[in-house]
Amino acid sequence: MQITKDTLPALIESDTKFISIFKSYAEEAMWSARLVPQFSKPRLVEARGAWLNDVDRVGSHEKHLVNGLDHFKQAGHLAFWLRRMSPLIEASDPTQDIQDSSGYELDETESAFRDLLFAGPNEYLAFDFGFQIVRFYEMARIDRVTPCPDIRPSRDYYQTTCHFLKYKNVSPHGLHIIYKSLFVM
Fold it and tell me: pLDDT value at position 118?
């Protein structure tokens, strides 16, 4: 799924668009491990509502903002609520269909990614979705002195971050700082 300048406004616009965009992203991401996700629609709606409430609340306390919260803060709050509401409820493995003779052998990359997802699927999807949004906006910035490098965190970085999100209390502001730190130059 391609993040564009229209993604963040569409996520804000309606529950239907939010669900469609997030599901499209998550299905593509999880297919890289040959997994098919299933989501709780009420949890996705609740995550969106909590995210928008947070963005409005924080924005109302920061009077100096002309254009609202930046993409780092919006992504931090979005990732926080997606992780907190845990909308992924199941992931099926079509490679192990009982009707297939031997199934589909996962390659090394698919297998390693599957291990990462099994350790914290909602954490991975929440963090990476927010990261992809931030990455798009940082790559599109024209006011940089030097061009933004195409940052792609390592598997170890994702594993550590997902573990941290799963077992520690990480605030939306903490996620904002994590995202921002990836693009400091």
Answer: 92
Overall number of domains in the chain: 1
Structural domain of 85: 7-182
In a domain, 25, yes or no: yes
* Cβ-Cβ contacts under 8 Å for 129 (sequence gap 6 or more): 22, 25, 26, 78, 79, 82
Residue 2 lies in a domain: no
Q: Is residue 101 part of a domain?
A: yes
Q: Is there a contact between 127 and 75 (Cβ–Cβ < 8 Å)?
A: no
pLDDT mean values, one per 10 residues, the chain (185 residues): 92 97 97 95 98 91 74 96 97 76 79 93 98 94 78 94 95 96 84
Burial class of residue 93, CB neighbours in 10 A (0-12, 13-18, 19+): middle
pLDDT of amino acid 60: 81
